[in-house]
Amino acid sequence: MTDLRYVYAVTRPFQAALPADLLGVAGAPAYRLDHDGLVAVVSAVPAEDFDEVPLKERLEDLDWLGATARGHEAVVTALVSVTGPLPLRLATVCRDDDGVRRLLESGRARFVRTLDRLDGRVEWGVKVYTEAPAAEPKAPAAEPEAPAEPAPATGRDYLRRRLRERRTGERSWEHADAVARGLHGELSRHAEAVRWHRPQQARLSGVPGENILNAAYLVPRASGAAFVETVREWPAAPGVRVELTGPWAPYSFADADADADADADADADGEAGAGRDAAGDAPPTVTGDGTGGTEGGGPPRAEDGR
Predict the structure, then answer these.
(1) CA-to-CA distance for 157 and 296, rounded, in angstroms?
(2) 237 and 248 in contact (C-beta within 8 Å)?
(3) Is the backbone peptide bond immediately before 247 cis, with ω within 30 degrees of 0?
(4) Phi and psi for 255 in degrees, rounded to 5?
(5) pLDDT tens per residue, range 237-294
(6) Which tens digits make up the pLDDT trace of 46-85?
(7) Which of 275, 245, 300, 243 minimizes the C-alpha distance to 127?
(8) Residue 13, CB half-sphere, CA atoms under 13 Å: how many?
(9) Backbone torsions φ then ψ of 24, nearest 5 degrees
(10) pLDDT tens string 32-44
(11) Residues sharing a CB contact under 8 Å with residue 64, sequence separation 6 or more, in sequence order
């Protein structure tokens, strides 16, 4: 079978060379394909894995999907250091180099418009979790331990205990929500746009705690230091954990309508717990003839639980 062309990103022409040892999906080296003032970064991939029919089956294999996503992101991350890439969807595939050229031609207006909007900007991810407070340190061995709370004697005692536990959990959630809203308000001063992602579920992500805020911020590179400092210096709160990831290529803002959606979200009173689908949550795009590809979002990252 003839190899297909996996397309990672579209950029404007850039001077720096791609790292010679840059390997992408399926361990294939990435290369640039210049066409009519745009650059597609691609690599050859086997048709037995990436043609339309076998790809649908492969996408059910989570190990294979994770390896593909890591290869995709390795290339896009390398591009961030040399240019401003517009990441394409995971598994955007063309038949050959001519198919890639047709992809650039058919999407040229969208690509140029989005590249202009994202030029000089990166994505930062921020998550806020509420979690049970750390256990109190045990008393010295010389002191007797406090007796354990007795088991409820009656159904009424049991209900009272459950009510206390629920109220404690509600107060913890409300406190974390207030922290998330305050932090989001400050971070929005440094960002040009915001995209809400669905809150992570601990049973799927393996990350402890309840995810209150899961947002992506489009930040000019010049404002990056102030953005990071805001997160790192935000006052610590018991039972609340804040996580910062990035800088990334602007995966969450790569679709043509992301700016309008983000502006609407940012005006929605910072609803930290609402959650949104990201551009990268759309299904992979298989463009067998090189004419159907579209920009929008990147691979799921382990940190995002997507």
Answers:
(1) 55
(2) no
(3) yes
(4) -80, 155
(5) 888 889 999 999 999 998 744 444 444 444 433 333 322 223 333 334 444 444 333 3
(6) 999 999 999 999 999 999 999 999 999 999 999 998 898 9
(7) 243
(8) 5
(9) -115, -135
(10) 999 999 999 999 9
(11) 58
In one letter, which amino acid is 9?
A
Residue type, 50: F
Mean pLDDT, residues 209-238 taken together:
91
- Cβ–Cβ < 8 Å for 183, 243: no
- H and E: helices and strands count for the chain: 9, 9
Which residue has 């979690």 as its token pair? 131
What are the helix (H) ranges across 59-139?
A: 62-80, 97-106, 108-118
Please say whether the beta carbons of 226 and 137 come within 8 A: no
User: pTM of the entire structure?
Assistant: 0.68
Q: Name every residue whose Cβ is closer than 8 Å to that of residue 202 and which is 6 or more positions away in sequence.
A: 208, 209, 210, 211
Q: What angle do CA 209, 213, 214 make, to 5 degrees?
A: 100
Predicted pLDDT of residue 237: 80
- d(C-alpha 32, C-alpha 112), whole Å: 17
String of b and e for 264-289 (b: at least 16 CB within 10 Å)? ebbeeebebbeebebbbbeebbbbee
